[in-house]
Amino acid sequence: MEVNVLQLVSQDEKLLEFLESGQDLYAAIFEVLFDKKCETTECRALIKKIFLPYFFGLQATSATGIFPSLDEAKDAFRRIEQTFPTACKWIREKEQNVKYNHVVEDYFGRIRDFSNEPFYKSRNFFIQSPAAVICMTKFVDMYRELPDNLLFNVHDAYVFSCKLKEVKQIIKVAKSVLEKQSFNGLLLKVKCSVGPQLSKMRKYPI
Q1: Which is nearest to 39 in space by CA: 47, 27, 48, 21?
Q2: CA-CA distance, 75 to 71, in Å (whole number)?
Q3: Measured at the alpha carbon of residue 118, what is the angle toward residues 113 and 119, in degrees to the nearest 5?
Q4: Residue 120 has pLDDT above 90, yes or no
Q5: How far is the CA of 25 from the CAs of 32, 47, 98, 161, in angstroms?
Q6: pLDDT (tens digit, 9 = 90+) per residue, 173-198?
Q7: Closest by CA position to 52, among listed 77, 21, 22
Q8: Which of 102, 137, 151 is nearest to 122 (CA)?
Q9: Cβ atoms within 10 Å of 87's Cβ, excluding its own
Q10: Do the Cβ atoms of 2 and 52 come closer than 8 Å?
Protein backbone atom coordinates (compact mmCIF):
# COMPACT_ATOMS: atom_id res chain seq x y z
CA MET A 1 0.00 0.00 0.00
CA GLU A 2 2.66 2.55 1.02
CA VAL A 3 4.57 2.24 -2.26
CA ASN A 4 1.35 2.94 -4.15
CA VAL A 5 0.66 5.93 -1.93
CA LEU A 6 4.22 7.19 -2.40
CA GLN A 7 3.65 7.17 -6.14
CA LEU A 8 0.30 8.94 -5.75
CA VAL A 9 1.59 11.77 -3.60
CA SER A 10 4.95 12.24 -5.36
CA GLN A 11 3.75 11.53 -8.92
CA ASP A 12 7.00 9.70 -9.67
CA GLU A 13 6.65 8.36 -13.22
CA LYS A 14 9.35 5.72 -12.84
CA LEU A 15 7.64 4.28 -9.81
CA LEU A 16 4.38 4.26 -11.75
CA GLU A 17 6.07 2.16 -14.44
CA PHE A 18 7.00 -0.44 -11.85
CA LEU A 19 3.49 -0.52 -10.39
CA GLU A 20 1.86 -0.88 -13.81
CA SER A 21 4.29 -3.54 -15.04
CA GLY A 22 2.61 -6.41 -13.22
CA GLN A 23 5.99 -7.64 -12.00
CA ASP A 24 6.83 -8.40 -8.40
CA LEU A 25 7.55 -4.86 -7.25
CA TYR A 26 10.46 -5.49 -4.91
CA ALA A 27 12.14 -8.00 -7.20
CA ALA A 28 11.87 -5.58 -10.13
CA ILE A 29 13.32 -2.71 -8.10
CA PHE A 30 16.23 -4.92 -7.01
CA GLU A 31 17.05 -5.78 -10.62
CA VAL A 32 17.05 -2.15 -11.71
CA LEU A 33 19.00 -0.85 -8.72
CA PHE A 34 21.70 -3.50 -8.80
CA ASP A 35 21.61 -4.49 -12.48
CA LYS A 36 21.29 -8.22 -11.83
CA LYS A 37 18.56 -10.82 -11.53
CA CYS A 38 16.61 -11.19 -8.33
CA GLU A 39 16.97 -14.94 -8.01
CA THR A 40 16.55 -15.44 -4.27
CA THR A 41 14.09 -14.39 -1.59
CA GLU A 42 16.97 -12.60 0.11
CA CYS A 43 17.28 -10.18 -2.83
CA ARG A 44 13.62 -9.24 -2.56
CA ALA A 45 13.87 -9.00 1.22
CA LEU A 46 16.79 -6.59 0.89
CA ILE A 47 14.66 -4.11 -1.06
CA LYS A 48 11.86 -4.38 1.50
CA LYS A 49 14.40 -3.47 4.17
CA ILE A 50 15.70 -0.35 2.42
CA PHE A 51 13.27 1.04 -0.16
CA LEU A 52 10.37 2.38 1.90
CA PRO A 53 12.56 2.82 4.99
CA TYR A 54 14.71 5.20 2.91
CA PHE A 55 11.66 7.36 2.29
CA PHE A 56 10.69 7.07 5.95
CA GLY A 57 14.07 8.48 6.99
CA LEU A 58 16.49 5.53 7.19
CA GLN A 59 20.07 6.79 6.93
CA ALA A 60 22.98 4.88 5.43
CA THR A 61 24.71 4.96 8.81
CA SER A 62 21.75 3.06 10.27
CA ALA A 63 21.75 0.49 7.48
CA THR A 64 25.15 -1.00 8.21
CA GLY A 65 23.44 -4.03 9.68
CA ILE A 66 21.80 -4.63 6.29
CA PHE A 67 24.91 -4.13 4.14
CA PRO A 68 28.45 -5.41 4.72
CA SER A 69 29.82 -1.85 4.81
CA LEU A 70 28.78 1.79 5.09
CA ASP A 71 30.01 2.44 1.55
CA GLU A 72 27.67 -0.22 0.18
CA ALA A 73 24.75 1.24 2.11
CA LYS A 74 25.53 4.71 0.73
CA ASP A 75 25.77 3.26 -2.77
CA ALA A 76 22.35 1.57 -2.45
CA PHE A 77 20.72 4.81 -1.32
CA ARG A 78 22.43 6.70 -4.15
CA ARG A 79 20.95 4.20 -6.58
CA ILE A 80 17.48 4.77 -5.16
CA GLU A 81 17.91 8.53 -5.60
CA GLN A 82 19.09 8.10 -9.19
CA THR A 83 16.28 5.71 -10.13
CA PHE A 84 13.42 7.57 -8.44
CA PRO A 85 14.50 11.24 -8.52
CA THR A 86 10.98 12.67 -8.40
CA ALA A 87 9.92 10.76 -5.31
CA CYS A 88 13.23 11.47 -3.57
CA LYS A 89 13.03 15.17 -4.33
CA TRP A 90 9.42 15.28 -3.14
CA ILE A 91 10.19 13.71 0.26
CA ARG A 92 13.25 15.93 0.77
CA GLU A 93 11.18 19.05 0.05
CA LYS A 94 8.49 17.88 2.45
CA GLU A 95 11.01 17.35 5.23
CA GLN A 96 12.66 20.70 4.51
CA ASN A 97 9.29 22.43 4.74
CA VAL A 98 8.73 20.96 8.20
CA LYS A 99 11.92 22.63 9.43
CA TYR A 100 10.41 26.05 8.72
CA ASN A 101 6.69 25.33 9.12
CA HIS A 102 6.36 22.91 11.99
CA VAL A 103 2.62 22.41 11.49
CA VAL A 104 2.05 20.64 8.17
CA GLU A 105 -0.69 18.92 6.17
CA ASP A 106 -0.68 15.58 4.40
CA TYR A 107 -2.20 14.78 1.00
CA PHE A 108 -5.74 14.81 2.40
CA GLY A 109 -5.32 17.85 4.63
CA ARG A 110 -4.69 16.06 7.92
CA ILE A 111 -2.62 18.28 10.19
CA ARG A 112 0.29 17.39 12.45
CA ASP A 113 2.61 19.51 14.57
CA PHE A 114 6.29 18.49 14.52
CA SER A 115 7.50 21.29 16.78
CA ASN A 116 8.63 18.82 19.43
CA GLU A 117 9.64 15.92 17.18
CA PRO A 118 12.66 15.22 14.96
CA PHE A 119 11.97 16.62 11.50
CA TYR A 120 12.85 13.38 9.74
CA LYS A 121 9.83 11.70 11.35
CA SER A 122 7.61 13.83 9.13
CA ARG A 123 8.70 11.71 6.16
CA ASN A 124 6.70 8.81 7.59
CA PHE A 125 3.69 11.05 8.19
CA PHE A 126 3.47 12.25 4.59
CA ILE A 127 3.13 8.65 3.36
CA GLN A 128 1.57 6.69 6.22
CA SER A 129 -1.11 9.24 7.03
CA PRO A 130 -2.76 9.22 3.58
CA ALA A 131 -2.31 5.44 3.45
CA ALA A 132 -4.38 5.15 6.64
CA VAL A 133 -7.14 7.30 5.15
CA ILE A 134 -7.21 5.19 1.98
CA CYS A 135 -7.33 1.94 3.97
CA MET A 136 -10.28 3.15 6.01
CA THR A 137 -12.09 4.51 2.95
CA LYS A 138 -11.73 1.15 1.22
CA PHE A 139 -12.99 -0.55 4.38
CA VAL A 140 -16.14 1.58 4.30
CA ASP A 141 -16.62 0.87 0.59
CA MET A 142 -16.31 -2.87 1.17
CA TYR A 143 -18.64 -2.77 4.14
CA ARG A 144 -21.30 -1.27 1.89
CA GLU A 145 -20.87 -4.19 -0.51
CA LEU A 146 -20.28 -7.02 1.98
CA PRO A 147 -21.75 -5.98 5.36
CA ASP A 148 -22.35 -9.57 6.48
CA ASN A 149 -18.87 -10.81 5.61
CA LEU A 150 -16.32 -8.09 6.36
CA LEU A 151 -14.93 -8.63 9.87
CA PHE A 152 -12.02 -6.24 10.32
CA ASN A 153 -8.87 -4.86 8.75
CA VAL A 154 -5.27 -4.53 9.87
CA HIS A 155 -4.01 -1.61 7.82
CA ASP A 156 -4.23 -2.86 4.20
CA ALA A 157 -5.23 -6.44 5.06
CA TYR A 158 -8.98 -7.12 5.13
CA VAL A 159 -10.52 -10.18 6.76
CA PHE A 160 -13.81 -11.75 5.68
CA SER A 161 -15.91 -14.65 6.90
CA CYS A 162 -18.07 -16.69 4.54
CA LYS A 163 -19.19 -20.17 3.59
CA LEU A 164 -16.90 -22.18 1.33
CA LYS A 165 -19.31 -21.88 -1.59
CA GLU A 166 -19.23 -18.08 -1.29
CA VAL A 167 -15.45 -17.68 -1.43
CA LYS A 168 -15.14 -16.90 -5.14
CA GLN A 169 -17.92 -14.31 -5.05
CA ILE A 170 -16.54 -12.59 -1.95
CA ILE A 171 -13.09 -12.39 -3.52
CA LYS A 172 -14.55 -11.04 -6.76
CA VAL A 173 -16.41 -8.25 -4.98
CA ALA A 174 -13.53 -7.36 -2.64
CA LYS A 175 -11.06 -7.30 -5.54
CA SER A 176 -13.37 -5.03 -7.50
CA VAL A 177 -13.68 -2.57 -4.62
CA LEU A 178 -9.98 -2.51 -3.76
CA GLU A 179 -8.69 -2.26 -7.32
CA LYS A 180 -11.22 0.32 -8.45
CA GLN A 181 -9.25 3.42 -9.37
CA SER A 182 -9.82 6.26 -6.94
CA PHE A 183 -7.93 9.09 -5.30
CA ASN A 184 -6.71 10.54 -8.59
CA GLY A 185 -5.70 7.25 -10.17
CA LEU A 186 -4.30 5.32 -7.20
CA LEU A 187 -3.29 1.83 -8.36
CA LEU A 188 -3.84 -1.12 -6.01
CA LYS A 189 -3.39 -4.84 -6.64
CA VAL A 190 -4.99 -7.54 -4.53
CA LYS A 191 -3.49 -10.75 -3.15
CA CYS A 192 -5.65 -13.26 -1.36
CA SER A 193 -5.35 -16.08 1.17
CA VAL A 194 -8.11 -18.47 2.23
CA GLY A 195 -8.41 -20.84 5.18
CA PRO A 196 -10.57 -22.15 8.02
CA GLN A 197 -8.81 -19.84 10.50
CA LEU A 198 -6.17 -17.10 10.47
CA SER A 199 -3.39 -19.49 11.45
CA LYS A 200 -4.16 -21.81 8.54
CA MET A 201 -4.38 -19.48 5.57
CA ARG A 202 -3.05 -20.40 2.12
CA LYS A 203 -2.52 -18.26 -0.95
CA TYR A 204 -5.50 -18.27 -3.29
CA PRO A 205 -4.93 -17.49 -6.98
CA ILE A 206 -7.07 -14.68 -8.34
Answers
A1: 27
A2: 6
A3: 70
A4: no
A5: 11, 9, 30, 29
A6: 999 999 988 888 887 889 999 999 99
A7: 77
A8: 102
A9: 24
A10: yes
